[in-house]
Fold each of these.
Amino acid sequence: MAAQTAATTFTNAIDASTKQVEDVQAALLNTVKQSTLTSIDIYEKSVSTLLDLQKKFIVTTDIPAIDDLIAAQTKLVGDVNAAGLSVARSVFA
């Protein structure tokens, strides 16, 4: 009887420890997800700022071919970036 009580106590202690480890892992995973989403937001803002700067160059060149090239490049980068960020957010959301 004492051996069975000791085994039950030991099993309960293992179960409690396992639950604590799972809780810590879940909290850590949640923190990592939130940090990653914050990093994605910062990256998105940085790219947006850079693209806005490039768009301002369009006004300063007064050369239609260069203006069109810059406009096409900023649109392409913006579209590819938006698609990538959408996928990244869906993975971490």
Amino acid sequence: MNILLVLIPVTMVIVIVAVAIFFWAVNHQQFDDLDSPGVLPLMEEAETEKPPHAATPHEDTDQVAPR
């Protein structure tokens, strides 16, 4: 029974911290957009323009470049 004297205050502290974290998240707009983060991996990335490829001396020949 003596353990209840410890567990009840510890539980109350955990609940108070959880509620404080929840209200902090709400005040900092963490729950405003719940749909787009789940869709972002499915979206195609915009293709970036690549600079023109400059030919290296070894591309024009069938020889392998020395290491």
